[in-house]
């Protein structure tokens, strides 16, 4: 069982008192999370007929992230067939990423998914920024039959997930679906997409990006009196696995209860406000996801949230 270390997602200010805590603002059209993303794409001959459409998919993924070296996402691009080719290492230059897509070479025989996964893992091992979410997006239309077969692909993926890398899979065909589901992060119902056409993949890219784009936008408190534990509702997106989510209220870490992929409750087991802030009127609220020991916490900006006192 891996030892996990919190990776900071966002510091959120808690808003005015409301029992319902509504949040109706539209989500950003692109993922603005602090993340390092590797796109791993099948380039075998079986998918050569869809070359232009796969190019469109790759471009759409690039355009789904706010790219920024310091605060936003960076992307790398890998294609694989009999072996893997790194088209671009982690970068935040949209034009350079799109040029690398246009330069990709012709298709070759065989499908070595594990080769693509290994190349992506090495990119993230050497280039993942401290605190940035390590994400991998895999596209394939065929089963690996060389270099260890599908078992090798599953084993490599297991090692990547053990390191805290979140893997989203897109399978184009029934033959590959079971293997891709095993490769994907848990829950597979969120991170494994079983598709029949590239056009389907194009249509679900916003949804798949949002699922792994863990962000917090707004929070409000349900109780915040000195003699009560503190309960906070948090709104965001990509809040998928409650076992990997933590709340830190006034510096004290507690668990989180997931309502849906966009809402969680910071459990009210934390002490009351007076204990947390030594009698002050404000307290910080943070939401974090647990990733592997290879990750270290990112230092956040300081934001205070004001609560009522009894």
Automatic annotation (TrEMBL):
Name of a matching Pfam family: VWA
InterPro entries per UniProt: ECM_Assembly_Org (IPR050525), Ig-like_fold (IPR013783), VWF_A (IPR002035), vWFA_dom_sf (IPR036465)
Signal peptide: 1-20
Sequence ranges assigned to domain VWFA in this UniProt record: 36-205
Keyword presence, Signal: yes
Keywords carried by this UniProt record: Signal
SMART domains xrefs: VWA
Protein name: VWFA domain-containing protein
Native source organism of the sequence: Prymnesium parvum (Toxic golden alga)
């Amino acid at each position: 069982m891996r030892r996990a270390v919190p990776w900071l997602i966002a510091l959120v200010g808690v808003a005015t008192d409301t029992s319902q805590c509504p949040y109706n603002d539209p989500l950003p059209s692109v993922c603005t999370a602090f993340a390092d993303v590797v796109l791993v794409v099948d380039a075998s001959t079986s998918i050569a007929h869809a070359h232009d459409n796969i190019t469109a998919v790759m471009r759409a993924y690039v355009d789904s992230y706010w790219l920024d070296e310091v605060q936003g996402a960076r992307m790398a691009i890998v294609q694989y067939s009999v072996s893997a080719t790194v088209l671009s290492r982690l970068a935040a230059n949209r034009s350079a990423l799109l040029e690398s897509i246009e330069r990709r070479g012709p298709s070759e025989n065989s499908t070595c998914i594990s080769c693509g996964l290994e190349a992506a893992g090495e990119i993230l091992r050497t280039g993942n920024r401290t605190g940035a979410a390590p994400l991998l997006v895999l596209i394939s239309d065929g089963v690996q039959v060389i270099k260890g077969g599908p078992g090798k692909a599953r084993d490599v993926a297991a090692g990547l997930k053990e390191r805290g890398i979140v893997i989203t899979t897109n399978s184009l065909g029934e033959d590959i679906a079971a293997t891709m589901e095993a490769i994907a992060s848990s829950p597979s119902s969120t991170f494994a997409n079983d598709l029949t056409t590239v056009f389907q993949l194009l249509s679900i890219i916003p949804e798949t990006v949002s699922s792994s784009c863990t962000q917090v936008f707004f929070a409000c408190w349900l109780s915040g009196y000195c003699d009560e534990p503190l309960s906070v509702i948090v709104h965001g997106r990509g809040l998928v696995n409650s076992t990997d989510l933590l709340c830190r209220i006034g510096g004290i870490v507690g668990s989180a209860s997931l309502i849906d992929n966009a809402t969680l409750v910071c459990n009210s087991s934390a002490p009351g406000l007076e204990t947390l802030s030594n009698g002050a009127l404000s307290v910080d609220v943070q939401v974090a996801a647990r990733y592997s020991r290879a990750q270290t916490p990112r230092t956040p900006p300081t934001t205070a949230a004001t609560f009522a006192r009894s």
